[in-house]
């Protein structure tokens, strides 16, 4: 029996405690809201937005939702909250989730509204609207954009029109997986290679799920041709979380890509397995012989470093040429890192975060032989997408890192002094779940926002 039901009946029967029952009801709702903000918002977004108009996977009856929260849906990455909440608290939470909410469509897309940020004024210009989760974006030499939508479609955006590019291999669209990142070869004009990561279905996806894979292909009109699989992550799993996945080239032409630990945290420390790693290969998929574990028996030769949870941001520092990254930690443990050869980033042996249900993963935040982050985020921001500001359009932001926040629905501007973070600012607050950010060929900042599409920040004096 849920709380408000009980109170309504008490009210009918007694009639003499209306104020009291009403007060308790409000308290239960408030408590559920607080619990939501502390325990659920990181993954499900503020104002329970993802539950409004949700396409329910496990059903929207009270008991079904109750079950999801209490026992979790491990295969999809939904943790169990049995240890964190009493049944009454879960009841209140379910009521809170299922009640209608109209305060939910506050989205800022009005063009040309000047935003005065700390050291730069700009307006937000909508480039493409009507897309769901745009994971990756890049530009062809002719200025056409290539865009991946996680739900499995690759688009070319040209002359204000979205054209579907045919010829992708089958994509395993499941949980956080689907069609993922896209990058051009640094010498695209001569080679014509396009690199794409996606969740590749196992031979029997119903049983074994899938894992992140990397292909390269060429473009013939609006069709992918010459597809070559350069890497397929192993082992595959039915879990729906932590696919990575970002691609970046460095100055020497090495290709880096990330795969998360796929919901099995012990993977991150195992060198015989792809997951929880940053990989480095040559542009044709061959492995550089100076990779750190090239000669280590049983290790994956492509591993460049390890101990990562789920990296969804990767960008080359424009001056030092180093690869910088960020990763989703557990609650309170998101990180920015500089990627070093052969290093161990510590997950799950060390972390600044705790489990989503409030329990401890490890007491250790540091250990000999393990890297410390440049900075960690508590509360977690749920970072996605990363780039350095370059060019002359935003002189006061030059060299800053931009990072999308899925959780807080803004863009984070990170000011560095060498390798130290000295200041941060929130840009385009409340815009929506920011999935990717990239400097375009016009040296404008492009941002993809879930449920909107692609926006850009146009500087004004
Ligand atoms: C680690 C991230 C994470 C946290 C924290 C989390 N969830 Fe989930 N939850 C998921 C994922 C992923 C799914 C499956 C995909 C989806 O429904 O969005 C899910 C599914 C669910 C479902 C089932 C939805 C359906 O379609 O049937 C419910 C209900 C739910 N979560 C409630 C909660 C509540 C309440 C909390 C906080 C107490 C919470 N979740 C915390 C990740 C999380």
Counted by DSSP, the helix tally is 6
| Main β-sheet, spatial strand arrangement | 1-2-25-24-23
Structural classification: alpha+beta
Question: Span between N and C termini?
Answer: 60 Å
The description of the largest β-sheet is: 5 strands, antiparallel
Bound molecules: heme C
Number of E-type strands: 25
Q: Percent of residues in helical segments?
A: 10-25%
Point out poorly predicted stretches: 1-23, 101-111
The first-level CATH class name of the largest domain: Mainly Beta
User: CATH superfamily name of the largest domain?
Assistant: TolB, C-terminal domain
Q: If you compute it from the alpha carbons, what radius of gyration comes out, rounded to the nearest whole angstrom?
A: 23 Å
Shape: globular
Average pLDDT for all residues: 90
CATH T-level fold name of the largest domain: Neuraminidase
* Tally of individual domains: 2
Strand content: 25-35%
